[in-house]
Amino acid sequence: MRTPDQPVLRDIVLIGGGHSHVGVLKRFAMNPVPGVRLTLICRDTHTPYSGMLPGYVAGHYTYDDVHIDLSKLAEYAGARFYRDEAIGIDKDRKHVICRNRPDVPYDILSINIGSSPRVNDVEGASEYAVPVKPITGFNNRWLSLLSRIENHDGPLTVGVVGAGAGGVELTLAMQFRLQNELKQRGKDPDQLHFHLFDAADEILPTHNPKVREVFRKALSDRGVKVHLGSAVKKVEQGFLLTESGQNLQTDEVLWVTRAGGPAWLADTGLELDDGLFIRVRDTLQTENDDNIFAAGDIANVVNHPREKAGVFAVRQGRPLADNLRRVALGKTAKDFHPQKKWLALISTGNKFAVASRGDVQFAGSWVWRWKDWIDRRFMKKFTDLPPMEDDAKLPDTGAAQNAEEASQAISAVAMRCGGCGAKVGSTVLSRALGELKPIEREDIIIGLHAPDDAAVLRVPPGKAVVHTVDFFRAFIDDPYVFGQVAANHSLGDVFAMGAEAQSATAVATVPYGIESKVEDVVFQMMSGAVEVLNEAGCALVGGHTGEGKELALGFAVNGLIDPEEVMSKGGLRAGDVLILTKPIGTGTLFAAHARLAARGRWVDSALASMIQSNKLGAECLRRHGAKACTDVTGFGLLGHLVEMTRPSGVDAELDLSAIPVLPGAEETAAAGILSSLQPANIRLRRGIRDQEKWINHPRYPLIFDPQTAGGLLASVSADQAEACVRELKALGYPHTAIIGRVTAQDMAGAIEPISLKD
Vertex 575, ends 571 and 578: CA angle to 5°? Predict the structure, then answer.
């Protein structure tokens, strides 16, 4: 993550990763505004380019060919990427309400969330039809249909509702792909039947008659039955019914019509049209709030109504970015007038396309090749990102809206007093922490919200205290998720010992900035942390927050344990089986993320693993008789295993092929992208017998990879291993695996305790 030298003065929050917003991110990356921070809120990490979606469905493109990696683009732009879904806007407080995280404050807001077919308008459609948007949901159903084709026998009927350009193009693309899949499997492609429905009397009603004629012929020649002039009134399992009384048996129903905005927009107070699209002026600002912009399909530019087409969202990217920049700097936004005629390139699935612009039409295979060139050139802008120069600038307060903000900004980058631990101001802290609700425990006598100087805890009779501490700087640009990971990481040592977490004391460093921005960072980060601590039954009882260049967080954690039931590193026994509960690879993946070399979905998988608690896993291991356990963290899998073998007086054998690995970790390690801690961990290679034999194995570098919030490495007796693994998987650790065994120590064991196999 990039740490700006400028204090943050203005927050621009982008809801949605549509075509306009990817343009905004790219333009701000190439020309950032000092003091202005971008935050992208989007449910999906990979956003599809609609122009290439039919080609993807037809099989001409891969998933990555047609998707822009928002995680990579946001990192490139220095923007924070919040993986969540916006479900509301509080205009008065200037907050975005999210589904799974605290509200996100904004100074300027932009909405580019596209539109979705209004399946709720037709009985049964929301339950039995598949809307083409959001495309992630459609893609999952499409992949499922492709999988079903492998074992399907007999007729297969697909109904597509909506005969505009999108519906016609999707129908032909799906038919082309599915027929090819059937042919490749030696099945009869004539068993596949497509039906296209629309209430209108014409297909492609917004295009000229010559274009419509080309597609009428294509649909007829390909055997697609077209049903016009009667709307679909009901969808049930296995059939759909039209208003004219036609009843068609179907295996799949796709919905590509009656698009509209999400229902939550109705409660925002923004001016909307009948379709729940946001009414905006020529500046792309909403009609009743100058600080909120909208673009793409979700926007209705009232003075220039246009078809819902991706070309307009793409074209709005530049004026939107320019106006966001202007308003952030206190300037007036400028009008943008979209073109009256536009070029539409519509494909027929079989590498043939039609160009349509006003009354002009031409078609051919060469048009598809032209479209392919245009589309690939567009995608290249967001996949081949030029290296950015490290262009540190002097403090700039141009985005400050008043003298007080400018004064705070100057203070934030000036020489700071390091006394008293460089504490964050008490007023900021009290506001940020006041909304936190740590759990209450009977054994916490004095905790977080008491005015005393320290927490006071009670140790129950017969219990011993486990105490541990961890601290590290942020590796991800989302303070809420970072807080979750930091708390989870810190709890790992307590759970690995078999203890119950009792209390945690936080130590945090937050970047310098104006009070409102510092307050939000503290609140977001500690909200994530408290959520994890509460789930673990661990009370946050106090802490210290200081100022620094980078965001960092750690916890001193107390746990309680029966002294007779400690799981220690010295408890390995010859004959035991080694079990690992989570995949490894976080070190190389986040090193790659910082270099824009990791796919967003790889980062998503790593974060999902890192925020998963080890609590249930540790309890399960104890039930199955584990005596030796550790959490895999900074020393890597090999380092922690060596730590276990030496006090236990045993050797161990690791099965490299059995070790669970996070998606993408082998690829980034093979590219030589490794954590900065890797060189220190590699020194432990001297503990491996015949290590020269294994240095070219693709998983060899990963056994040295330092982990953050990694899984548990434990040993259980061989007769308990399979049952233990089954239970761990049932508890939500799907990658749990037996990765080796414990052996008796031989003469070389003291120096080379680890042997490898494949």
Answer: 65
